Prior knowledge:
- This is Membrane protein.
- The chain has 283 residues and is of the alpha+beta class.
- It has two domains: 3-197, no CATH class; 201-272, Alpha-Beta Plaits (2-Layer Sandwich).
- It has helices at 3-33, 39-50, 60-78, 81-100, 111-131, 139-148, 154-173, 175-196, 211-221, 252-262; strands spanning 201-208, 227-232, 239-248, 267-272.
- A four-stranded antiparallel beta sheet has the order 2-3-1-4, with helices on one face.
- Strand 2 (227-232) and strand 3 (239-248) form a beta hairpin.
- The radius of gyration is 21 Å and the shape is elongated.
- The mean pLDDT is 83.
Amino acid sequence: MTAVVKESMLKVIVASIGGFVIAVAMNWFLIPSGVYSTGFTGLAQILTQVLQNTAFAFGENVWFLALNIPLIVLAWIMLGRSFTIITLVSVLATTIFIGLIPQYAVIPGDQTLNAVFGGVLLAIGTGITIKFGASTGGFDIVALIFARFSDRSVGLYLFVLNFLIALLAGALFGWSTALYTIVFIYVTSKVVDEIHTSNQRLTIFIVTNHADDITTALHQHIIRGITQIPSIGTYSRAEKATLMMVIERHELRDIERICREADETVFINVVATDSVVGYFRKG
Length: 283
């Protein structure tokens, strides 16, 4: 089994686990307590409540999948095949598990605790999925696409879109509901930052004796510019090359794998990048 196949299988497993954890957060904490989630899971909750006595009375899982389908198609076109396939796995896993796991109030009658524990669980499911180079669908995809056409961050778009969900929930079901949803948004964002970190862009320095092999392999899989810098080891006095790249976090695992396959002794230093001046392809 090749390293690429192993990595792909690992991503599928992680995305499926992430979908399961998100479903547990929804069915055991958020839905039973009337706390509304962020993104398309929250929008699915709202649609389920508003349309429950109509011909469109579907469950949260059906609405979640229906809302994501057009965005999955758009992501395939604009954000790449690998990212979209794992995102689709995450969306399908979340849809299936929300339908299978029974709704049960683990903490009945306490919306604050439900918002906190539901937020932590949903953030864990979302964070591990993002960490392995995918998204959980919904507003993640919208924010990534918006960010590609502006200088504003993905995080800003996510905050605005999720805040709109809180306002919509408040307008429909009472403003106390909106406040509990804002608590949920805060907890979720903090936990996701701890898992994934808030730094989306990274600068990596790759020190290697096989610069040509690594750059050839990277150019075949990653659409990023690479700057090659001649280097000399101060102890060995051996001539090496240092490759510098600015990337997005979800690309890091694939780049590390590609570099290790081309050079088992490669040295990689990863540095958080606050800003980039000049052209940088987003997504």
